[in-house]
């Protein structure tokens, strides 16, 4: 029984060797040289792409508060209205403030009259003293000069009060600090508005957003922060606008990692002249990271799964197995750090019937896309 098993095993070995012998012979009579698909090792710019959720927000946005307390006399705008910088949005009614301004103006006029009288008296005494020395007592001159200075100071104070009240009256006019769109209206005519500087609970009147230029913010993981640069190209996909896609560039980034999320905020600017994009919309940003410029690259299909070797067709048209060291892996390519040279022909896949040293005919495949 043991002898018969040994005989069968020997027969199988002889059959396998007989089947493999033509392959090693390579150029033996009547043996066809197999054709294999190869790709040429070339230099390319490799990178990895990541997709990050992002959100649009207004480039400038502010809730407009009143700087003085008063009743709303009228509101000239409503939500959705486009406004220009400096445009009157709302007007407050503060009768007592107008009365205080009138009182300050009257006080300024009295102060001006007092100064004029004191200044004329002083200048006349000075002229007389110059024409007739020692005619006017020095004490009288000093008293007149002091009254002149006091009156001048009172006039300056009165002018300051007038300017202060005029400034307060101007605060009753709520104007747009920049051009944009009214996105919220908080108050209606007749409502009592508290000064925004006097209470944190003071109600604003309207909210204005500059939607002509938007900010698109997205968080980048700490793993990829080192590759973030200003003006780096970015692809943006907006599903809510019919899968619209457009290109942009990184405008700025925070230069700080958030401790809770381990991400850094990166921002790009998106022109929005038609106001088609609305703050609060979501988008997906595709960003190139871990870029490797001008490196040796081969298709991922050329490396057998779990292997660190590839099959190369050398200058003698023979199969050669080479160990290689791989770097960056993208969706379609590997970066080759060592083991291959530019122009080498690498076989696609790893046919089991081919052995190192076997003669083959190489058929060059068309280059694949870099990524």
Please state the average pLDDT score.
Answer: 85
The DSSP helix count reads: 3
The end-to-end distance, rounded to whole angstroms, is 60 Å
Contiguous uncertain segments of 5+ residues:
1-29
Strand count: 19
Helix content class: 25-40%
Strand sequence of the main sheet, in spatial order? 2-9-12-11-10-13
Which class do the helix and strand fractions yield?
alpha+beta
Helix/strand order, N-terminal first: HEEEEEHHEEEEEEEEEEEEEE
Shape summary? elongated
How many strands, what sense, and barrel or not for the largest sheet?
6 strands, antiparallel, barrel
CA radius of gyration = 43 Å
Beta content comes to 35-45%
Which keywords apply here?
alpha+beta, 3 helices, 19 strands, about 40% strand, six-stranded antiparallel barrel, about 375 residues
